[in-house]
Amino acid sequence: MSELEANQLQHFLDRIDRGEKIEADDWMPDDYRKQLIKLISMHAISEIMGALPEKEWVPKAPTLRRKLAIMAKVQDEMGHGQLLLRVVEDLLAPLGKTREDLMNDLFTGKLKFHNVFHMPATTWADAGIIGWLVDGAAIITQTMSLESSYAPYARALTRICAEEKFHAQHGESIVLTLAEGTPAQFQMLQDAVTRWWIPLLMFFGPPDNGKISSNQQMNIQYKIRTQTNEELRQIFLTKYVPRIFHLGLTLPDDTIHYDSATKMWHYEQPDWDEFKRIVSGHGPCSDQRLQLRKLSYEDAKWVRDALMAKQHQAV
Q1: What is the distance between the terminal CA atoms of the chain, rounded to a whole angstrom?
Q2: Are 161 and 142 spatial neighbours (Cβ–Cβ below 8 Å)?
Q3: How many CA atoms lie within 13 A of 122 on its CB side?
Q4: Which residues pair with 150 in a beta bridge?
Q5: What is the pLDDT of residues 201-231, one digit of tens each?
Q6: Has residue 310 got a pLDDT over 80?
Q7: In sequence order, what DSSP letters do the residues of 93-148 get, joined into one string?
Q8: Domains (ranges, CATH) in the chain?
Q9: Taking a C-beta distance cutoff of 8 angstroms, is the pair 48, 77 a contact?
Q10: pTM of the model
Q11: If phi over 0 gives left and psi between -120 and 50 gives alpha, with beta otherwise, what is residue 140?
């Protein structure tokens, strides 16, 4: 590293330490840009892919009001993905890359999305669990990132987090209705909780086990994030485990308990090798969801071409 580069880096770190925000056209280290692209592109694609399990329930929702609500939620999630892709585009531009490159990375398996969106949504109760617990987990992660040192991401998250709170309320409404419904409805809800519990634990990523991964360490150093995977998971468990039990539901883990001495939840660890396999595109619905996304992208090519042609005419 040259003296000029060292001075630039130190000035950059000093800015972050003072709590200043970095804008897209500011100087930034290559590894900072790389970490942002990795994080925000995964978040963007997860928003888009995350709409697909619920999209399946738009025509099958039990009432008109539920159909309209879940349709609005799907629309919101797609909008979040598009908003975040726009944030990533500014980071990609100096590298000579575009949104098209990101989509190709998704289709070739290079760009990953959250493990939970590789899973099937078997019953209407799954739609409730996705809204209540999956979106609840997402809110915990995204709220942390509101303080991100990268200003465009933080600004986008302000809107996203506000809308995600409505999504969580939508899911909670479904869950409460089923919990107070017939024995068959309650059992459907219990089955959904059992199916989704392991994917929910995996949502935050592998635990630190006393040593923070290099990615987490770099993101914390650059103040892209402020908490580790396990810290976020503990917040999730503290918020939701008592609520799950309060509804009379059970979890597929007889060992889970809160240790008041350590102020930590103890739980049975999921199979983290399975987690890696799922996010690498080998989950139950990975192929189906990717093929649907690819087909939709290809079918809409004429729209993108028309918009680009109009834009060039205007210039």
Answers
A1: 41
A2: yes
A3: 11
A4: 22
A5: 999 999 976 566 677 888 989 999 999 999 9
A6: no
A7: GGGT--HHHHHHHHHTTSS---GGGGS---SHHHHHHIIIIIHHHHHHHHHHHTT-
A8: 29-314 (1.20.1260.10)
A9: yes
A10: 0.92
A11: alpha
